[in-house]
Amino acid sequence: MIRKEPRLYYRVFVWSGTLRLFHWTLAFSTFILILTGIYIHYPPITTKWAEFKPQYIMAILRYWHFVAGYFFICALMVRFYLFFAGNQYERPADFLPINRRNLKSLMYNIKFYLYMTDEHECRMGHTILAGTIYFLLFICGVVMGLTGLYLLYPETPMVAKIGHELFGTPQQARLIHYLLNWFFIFFILVHLYIAIWNDFKAPDAIISGAFSGSKMMPADTACPLEDMEK
Ligand code: HEM
Predict the structure, then answer these.
(1) Which residue among 46, 78, 166, 223 is least enclosed by CB atoms within 10 Å?
(2) Please, are residues 154 and 161 in contact by the beta-carbon 8 Å criterion?
(3) What string of pLDDT tens digits covers the 230 residues of the chain?
């Protein structure tokens, strides 16, 4: 049986083209970094196998790891720029729990994901919970970039000096790089799960918003349009 629910929606533009470019560059480069990184850590081919074709698998995959690494670093630089020059939803003040309103909102998000309330919060930008986790991911991304560059250029005096000050020996940096790899894997799994789950539960169409940049807001929500565009 088809259930008809006529409802009026506003389309509100939230995510700038630059933010979407950052998002998809980060997503694709992280995907390649994880696959190639896991291979670097657990190469399944023994020296015996290496005599067979295809040859130089490790060299090729390491090369792609570094190429993706540079895209990853560029994406982070773009996001850093947007912290200051992005629209209101892209700036940290909108999505970090740094004031009373955002702290309240954070508690609300936690309750929502613990199934303690069914009411969906009316928010145009990131929820505070998502924003806080994205910010943490950004910091981890910076650590990945720095440890990666340290591992890549251990003999460049300036890199070696800064790398040693920040992370200790290259082997210690490699351990941090490897452990954070699992944080990224865990994040991606939860991120995809929540995006799909939200697409079922909430009306704002967040998945298509990652492409189009806009969100759909039901006109009959408790959230007035002025509040959305503030
Ligand atoms: C989310 C981002 C990244 C992930 C998930 C990732 C993952 C990994 C993993 C799992 C390893 C193997 C570590 C080990 O053997 O214990 C690795 C090695 C390495 N990664 Fe990354 N990486 C990322 C970003 C970067 C970046 C931005 C760079 C710098 C361009 C980089 C450069 C390197 C280098 C130089 C190695 C060592 C290669 C070797 O020992 O042969 N990585 N990465």
Answers:
(1) 46
(2) no
(3) 566 667 788 888 999 999 999 999 999 999 999 999 999 999 876 666 666 667 788 999 999 999 999 999 999 999 999 999 999 999 999 999 999 999 999 998 898 888 888 777 777 899 999 999 999 999 999 999 999 999 999 999 999 999 999 999 999 999 999 999 999 999 999 999 999 988 887 777 889 999 999 988 877 766 644 444 44
Most ligand 1 atoms within 8 A of CB, residue of 134, 136, 138, 144 to mutate? 144
Q: What ligand 1 atom has the least distance to the C-alpha of 41?
A: 15
The enclosing H or E element of 94 equals: helix 92-95
- For residue 38, give the ligand 1 atom closest to its CA: 10
Record the tokens describing residue 92, joined without a space. 């940290």
H/E stretch holding 9 reads strand 9-13
Coil vs helix vs strand at 2: coil
Instruction: Name which of 179, 83, 174 is nearest 134 in CA terms.
Output: 83
Go through the domains of the chain in sequence order and give each one's CATH number.
Answer: 9-229 (1.20.950.20)
SS3 217: strand
pTM (whole model) above 0.85: yes
Contacts 24+ apart (CB under 8 A), 95-98: 95/125, 95/126, 95/127, 95/128, 95/130, 95/131, 95/132, 95/134, 95/135, 96/128, 96/131, 96/132, 96/135, 97/128, 97/132
